[in-house]
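PROTEIN DESIGN WORKSHEET
SECTION A - STRUCTURE
LENGTH: 216
C-ALPHA CELLS:
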C-alpha cells in the first residue's frame, strides 16, 4: 500500500493520519482537541429533536435545507490556527454556536439549521484533510469512519479532491460503521506482511489512539 492520508471521522475519532504501512507505520498528524465530529452530529440532532443516531438523521434533514442560510464557525480554521494546529479539529464551539442560534431564533427552519451545521463540519474536515495531502505531497486520501457515510461529505470530497488532483477512496456507506469486513481486511494485510496471529486472550483497548494497532 502506498503512502496515504486518512481522514478518520466517527463518534469517537476525528483524526488525520499518515499511513505508510497499514499494519504498523501510522503517524497521527492531527486530531480533535475536544469533541469528535460524530459526537457533534448526535448533539445537534438532539437539539433539533431529530433523534439518534444523529448522523443519518441530519444528513436526511439537510437535503431539504439551505446550507448557506446560517454561517456557523469552522473550528481551528483561522490563519493563526492553521499555522499552529493545521491538522487539528475542534467542534465544541460549533455546537455552542448552533445551540445559541436555536435559543435566539425560536422560529428557525430546522432543515436550514441542519444543512448549515453539516456544511460547517464538512468544510473544515476537508479543508484540513486536503491540506495534509498537499503539504506531505501524498496524492491519495481515504475517508473512513461512521461520518464517512454522510452524503454531503462524500459529494464535496469528490469535488475538492478532483480539483486538487488527489485520488479519493471511501468505503461503501454500509462499511463505514462497525463491521467485520474492516477487521478481516486488516488481518489479511497483517498476514501478508508476516505478522504472527494474535493470541485468543488479547484485550481490547477503547482508549487506544487510532495510530496504534494492537497486536497480541
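SECTION B - SEQUENCE
RESIDUE ASSIGNMENT:
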Amino acid at each position: 500500500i502506498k503512502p496515504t492520508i486518512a481522514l478518520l471521522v466517527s463518534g469517537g475519532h476525528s483524526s488525520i493520519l499518515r499511513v505508510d504501512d497499514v499494519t504498523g507505520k501510522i503517524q497521527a498528524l492531527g486530531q480533535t482537541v475536544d469533541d469528535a465530529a460524530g459526537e457533534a452530529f448526535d448533539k445537534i440532532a438532539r437539539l433539533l429533536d431529530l433523534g439518534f443516531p444523529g448522523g443519518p438523521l441530519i444528513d436526511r434533514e439537510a437535503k431539504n435545507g439551505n446550507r448557506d442560510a446560517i454561517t456557523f464557525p469552522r473550528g481551528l480554521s483561522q490563519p493563526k490556527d492553521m499555522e499552529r494546529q493545521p491538522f487539528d479539529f475542534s467542534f465544541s464551539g460549533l455546537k455552542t454556536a448552533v445551540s445559541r442560534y436555536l435559543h435566539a431564533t425560536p422560529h428557525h427552519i430546522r432543515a436550514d439549521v441542519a444543512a448549515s451545521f453539516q456544511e460547517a463540519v464538512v468544510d473544515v474536515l476537508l479543508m484540513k484533510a486536503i491540506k495534509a495531502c498537499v503539504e506531505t505531497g501524498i496524492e491519495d486520501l481515504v475517508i473512513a469512519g461512521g461520518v464517512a457515510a454522510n452524503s454531503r461529505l462524500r459529494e464535496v470530497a469528490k469535488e475538492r479532491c478532483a480539483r486538487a488532483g488527489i485520488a479519493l477512496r471511501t468505503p461503501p456507506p454500509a462499511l463505514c460503521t462497525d463491521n467485520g469486513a474492516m477487521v478481516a481486511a486488516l488481518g489479511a494485510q497483517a498476514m501478508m506482511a508476516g505478522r504472527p496471529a494474535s493470541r485468543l486472550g488479547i484485550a481490547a483497548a477503547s482508549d487506544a489512539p487510532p495510530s496504534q494497532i494492537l497486536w497480541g
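SECTION C - NOTES
The first strand starts at residue 4 and ends at 9.
The chain has one domain: 4-176.
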